[in-house]
Design brief:
The structure is a homodimer. Chain A has ten helices and seven strands. Chain A has helices at 18-30, 48-54, 58-62, 70-74, 100-107, 127-131, 150-166, 177-194, 197-213, 218-238; strands at residues 7-13, 35-39, 64-67, 79-83, 98-99, 113-118, 135-138. The longest helix of chain A is centred in the last third of the chain and has 21 residues, at 218-238.
């Protein structure tokens, strides 16, 4: 499995639920987290329930590192960020967060190793724990009910970090520039046969715009090319 | 509760797990989803287990709309997008997706109502179901294990839609421009007293850069201003 920089360490403080621990192991596999540190978990992190919810991420359960303090869990990383759904008032600087989007776009890419700290399902992180991290991250959500379940908060932060690390690579082979031109020529030929002279220019431009404004995959473009070829043949026979 | 445009409908096809249904109700409350349609769920969507995992999102369970077909669940929305972890080869156009980021940035803002369709935990959506939607959305993840648990896939899509709808509003009151200037003046005064003439310009510039490169909250800025004022007084007394 490839290593993707920066190294990501998930730190879970006082986790209370086996389902969440299992789901987080799975997410760690989905988004290639390097390390999971558990600070004094309240459940057995190696139970069969945890493994069941980890699904194909069960190998990450084997890599759980259980420690006794947050200090220990933060050793050896360049940057640490804790997470909280609670945002402080003006004077409560400890609870002034950056959004997770801002964190991954502006801050995280400058570091080689990052720890993200998540608190207890019931009460989150204490003020003392919050003060041990360099930064505070917040996931924007409905102000009337911003508190996500633990593993869902983890999923969003890990997803954002994944997008940051993997970039915006095309997932599927994109259409090559020349196929747009070929589809366009066929469609214009057809249009020229069946559209009145006074409307032809608008249709011509509209065909160009829909083709060049919308990025197609190679497969989509070749299916459209096939369609246009068939169409031209039939129109050619009729006229 | 405020309405945020576009209207978002979550459509769950053949959901198999009560925990996931409960978590999704909670997420719908966290991210202000308007409607949840369940197409032939395999579990009782109104069970106590579902309600337990919904937490403060239990009111969304009351709003579950159970229907018998995907066609029914897609009625009345302008745009429908299904989701899949599987990406097709070149010729399999049905499985050529857009990423969720591309979807929310480029496509979704143009519509007033959007349905997002999520498939079964075990096997996702059938090809027939995929073909009923306008678009296919993909969440980028580890290619060796891209399959997220259902409710975690939902969390990421709803989070992206929330960011799109709520914009990048500051969560905490940002520092006003003049406080940077006031902090800078104090720090420069101190620097001018204690730094050699030949190094002063570099320190001066560095002070400007750290103050203006890093957006501060009003609370952070006022704490730094307080610190700088104290410092100037003490330095003034000593020299």
């Amino acid at each position: 499995m490839q290593k993707v920089r920066p190294i990501i360490r998930v730190v879970l403080v006082g986790t209370e639920g086996e389902i969440n621990l299992g789901f987080i192991a799975r997410l760690a596999a989905n988004f290639l987290v390097d390390e999971i540190y558990l600070v004094s978990p309240l459940v057995d992190p190696f139970s069969s329930e945890v493994r069941r919810f980890a699904a194909h991420g069960e190998y990450m359960v084997e890599h759980f590192k259980v420690v006794n303090s947050l200090d220990e869990a933060l050793q050896g990383v360049e940057l640490s960020a804790c997470t909280s759904a609670r945002v402080g008032q003006r004077s409560d600087v400890l609870r002034h967060p950056v959004t997770v989007r801002e964190f991954v776009e502006r801050i995280a890419p400058r570091y080689n190793s990052i720890a993200i700290v998540f608190g207890r399902e019931s009460v989150g992180l204490t003020r003392e724990e919050l003060s041990k991290c360099h930064l505070l991250i917040h996931i924007p959500a409905n102000p009337d009910y911003p508190v996500l379940n633990l593993s869902h908060a983890v999923s969003i932060v890990l997803y954002e970090l994944w997008v940051m690390r993997s970039g915006s690579r095309s997932i599927v082979e994109p259409a090559k520039p020349d196929i747009y031109e070929r589809i366009y020529k066929l469609l214009f030929e057809i249009a020229a046969k069946i559209i009145d002279r006074e409307r032809l220019q608008a249709v011509d431009i509209a065909l160009k715009r829909i083709l060049w404004k919308c990025p197609l995959t190679a497969g989509e473009a070749s299916a459209l090319y096939y369609f246009a070829k068939k169409l031209r043949r039939i129109i050619g026979e009729q006229r």
